[in-house]
Write a structure and sequence with these properties.
single chain, alpha+beta, 2 domains, seven-stranded antiparallel β-sheet, 11 helices
């Protein structure tokens, strides 16, 4: 029996099957009226999607565009307004968190421009203020400690008594005089340690305000520096290989279209991106690398503490 007659036989015996079902084994769904299988030649034309869903990721769909049964385009669509889809997309590119990926897509889509924000978009990426590091050699410690010293210059005796009580009761049995010395001695990391301890207790208002201000500043700067780096990141593979098959990426917020290579052997039907020379960074990574004086100073100027 000829192939086309075999498929005609199937559809005659199972009327609920169309020729598309028969030829594609029921795995593909025509997208529109231009998506057809010719009954005589079995030639496939138009755009088809799959009936199969990626487990736990129902919003991610793949599409194949055919011309005379040849695949002209093969792409996945990700809706990054859906957290699970954004997580899957981040994983493809080796990104540690979906929030960084979402910010990058907003930049690539042109719906946002790079900007240093007053508060971080993802405030829980960095656990506490002690995780922040600073680049050496540009006197950032003096910049931050000067702001702290000026802001805390009017703390009252009652405030210091309350601070002393908290520090004495802490695990390290710290001293209030050491706290005073910490922001006048030039040891920023020591001062931030004190600030972290005090912020976890019922401390004077100015201490809490200063802690939250600096933490917002450092987290926002870390996000900003990661976004600056990531914006130049190329989401497309240099060439089709066993490790990379993404030929082109298109954006139409909130949708991201990953077009896969269709020439040669398609070793994987899922998007793959492996680049050993370049990776997407994120706010925690930038914080560990060390924040720059330039952007912390910019934050202080743009969003002064009140």
């Amino acid at each position: 029996m000829e192939v086309k007659n075999f498929f005609k036989f199937i559809t005659s015996k199972r009327p609920e099957y169309t020729m598309v079902d028969a030829v594609t084994k029921g795995y593909s769904v025509p997208v529109n009226s231009g998506s057809t299988v010719d009954n005589e030649t079995l030639s496939i034309n138009g755009l088809f999607t799959t009936k199969n869903e990626i487990r736990n990721f129902p919003n991610i769909k793949s599409y194949k565009s055919y011309s005379d049964s040849e695949v002209e385009d093969f792409y996945y669509v990700f809706d990054v307004s859906d957290t699970r889809s954004a997580s899957y997309l981040a994983d493809i590119f080796g990104c540690d968190d979906y929030s960084t990926m979402i910010r990058l897509i907003k930049l690539k889509s042109g719906i946002e421009t790079l900007s240093l924000k007053k508060r971080p978009e993802s405030p829980y990426e960095i656990d506490n203020i002690k995780e922040i590091e600073f680049r050496h050699g540009d006197n950032i410690e003096e910049l931050v400690l000067t702001l702290c010293k000026n802001y805390l210059s009017d703390l009252s005796d009652d405030d210091y008594e309350q601070i002393g009580s908290i520090l004495t009761d802490s695990d390290d049995s710290l001293d209030v005089e050491d706290f005073k010395q910490s922001f006048s001695s030039g040891d920023l990391y020591n001062f931030l340690e004190y600030l972290h301890i005090l912020s976890e207790e019922w401390c004077p208002d100015k201490i809490g305000i200063l802690h939250d201000y600096l933490f917002d500043c450092f987290c926002s700067v870390a996000e900003y520096e990661s976004d600056i780096y990531n914006k130049r990141f190329n989401l497309e593979c240099d060439e089709n290989s066993d490790y990379c098959n993404i030929e082109r990426v298109d954006f139409k917020w909130p949708f991201v279209y990953l077009h896969l290579y269709t020439d040669g052997d398609m070793r994987s039907d899922e998007p793959e991106f492996r680049n050993q020379y370049d990776n997407i960074t994120n706010a925690p990574s930038e914080a560990k690398e060390g924040l720059s004086y330039k952007y912390v100073a910019e934050y202080f100027e743009k969003y002064p503490i009140v």
